[in-house]
């Protein structure tokens, strides 16, 4: 979309300019729409679980803006021949159960005949215009908090090649199925300055977006980043996704990565996530209380860094 000459619209509060999680459109002085779409190929064998993860992955973008999701449209690619339609039914049932759990109304959808299965949702939420949390508000002195551990991409690759053990798979599924709803509520209460949903562009890719949009540098303490049990071992075997390479290219040279950061940990920092955690920039004075409250729902939530004045790089990893 960067090659398009998109006209500025006076009611569009958040567009594509800073690669934020969702667009925000002003309806009236006290109400704005938050809109996003996301769908992807299966990352687990069970179709019902795949549907649940897909739904949360889509809704999380609305929560990342501090908004309340209200409606969803299903989007799927599925072959007319060669795969039982009961599988699609189970995928959609898993998604619907998750939407219903979080008070999101399914209002329809669209399907395409395609040999590659894909599934997800376009989600619409609502928010007061003054309450929108974007990826461009991080301030020097803020603490950086991550609500979930990383490693789902590497583990998905491990599953594909039969290298991930049952305990690692269970831990990854539990991470992906942990909804961001409570995190959104708590970061709103803490008056977070900025937030983003850590998904396909990886922890470092999304932190890079926040730093660039906010005109600051984000320092990451690599040893403080929580990882899913078993993910480091799989990363050490080279079981990375294609996103590892593209995410490194995306950040480019605008990063300082300390030589002390191990190869396998660096792979997890660049690992594309599915239904990942929220990356939150919050005033230092509120960080400890927010983290304590987050850990009641997200036990692996951690303070992983801080925001500084803009330096030579957008991201510094120690």
Throw out a few tags for this protein.
globular; 2 domains; 318 residues; 13 strands; 60s Ribosomal Protein L30, Chain: A
CATH architecture of the largest domain: Alpha-Beta Complex
Could you report the average pLDDT, rounded to the nearest whole number?
A: 96
Number of strands: 13
**Unreliable stretches:** none
End-to-end Cα distance, whole Å, is 33 Å
Describe the fold and architecture.
The chain has 318 residues and is an alpha+beta fold. It folds into two domains: 12-131, PurM-like, N-terminal domain (60s Ribosomal Protein L30, Chain: A, 2-Layer Sandwich), CATH 3.30.1330; 143-317, Phosphoribosyl-aminoimidazole Synthetase, Chain A, domain 2, CATH 3.90.650.10. Helices cover 35% and strands 25% of the residues. It is built from ten helices and 13 strands. The strands form two sheets. Strands 8-11-7-12-9-13-10 form a seven-stranded mixed sheet, with helices on both faces. A six-stranded mixed sheet has the order 1-2-3-6-4-5, with helices on one face. Helix 1 runs parallel beside helix 2, helix 3 (152-160) crosses helix 4 (166-176) and helix 6 runs parallel beside helix 8 (243-251). The longest helix has 18 residues, at 47-64. The radius of gyration is 19 Å and the shape is globular. It starts with 11 loop residues before the first strand and ends with a strand. The mean pLDDT is 96.
